[in-house]
Protein: Cytidylate kinase
Organism: Herbaspirillum seropedicae
Amino acid sequence: PKIPVITIDGPTASGKGTVAQKVAQQLGFHYLDSGALYRLTALSVLRRGIALNDEHALAKAAEHLHCHFDGAHIFLSNEDVTQAIRAEEVGNTASKIAALITVRQALYGLQLSFRKPPGLVADGRDMGTVIFPGARLKVFLTASVEARATRRYKQLIDKGFSANIEDLSRDLKERDERDMSRSSAPLKPAEGAYHLDTSDMTADEAVQQVLSWYAALG
Ligand code: C5P
């Protein structure tokens, strides 16, 4: 029998990570935070001083990513980088290198390997369009720029980073633009995706909606 996959794609800070994690928890499924793989690659690249125009070196860094996931913790070569990969600089670099098809190809197999029984919830930009096109349920999660900037602001402050709403809104728009306009795996709703605008929803309400869509598929 096929291992079921639920994909949750959407723009930066749309709440897809929180929703995907909770849906996975409720169903007892595995969870893939695909953005974390791009962030891990970005962190590794920044630390090693690899130039962002050295495509060959960037792809190599992605291919030889030594990472592992342990519950909510993310490790790069055995160092806990759960917090470090959330920095804005890392996210912006991730979005730049994610535009390269060689980097995306280097991370393809790693992403597929997260599909294990009894099932997987995967979040990102191209989970439903490219990585798991045969997913049982595909969700496209959005929220207004204002709602997303406010959420990102709270997240960063809670994690001890400094932040400014105007800068965050501008960065979000830039990143949306880059993620949607790139030629390789651009951010867009997958065919057959269910759309969910979470601007005025709590995370739990969004989780309930996804779970009821999934249950309705039988
Ligand atoms: O989702 P998150 O903000 O952590 O992702 C960081 C960056 O990685 C995104 O801005 C996007 O450019 C890239 N990404 C991607 N494809 C995915 C997940 C993330 O291109 N499936």
About this structure: The chain has a mean pLDDT of 95. DSSP finds ten helices and eight strands in the chain. Residues 12, 34-35, 38-39, 91, 94-95, 98, 124-127, 175, 179 surround cytidine-5'-monophosphate (CB under 6 Å).
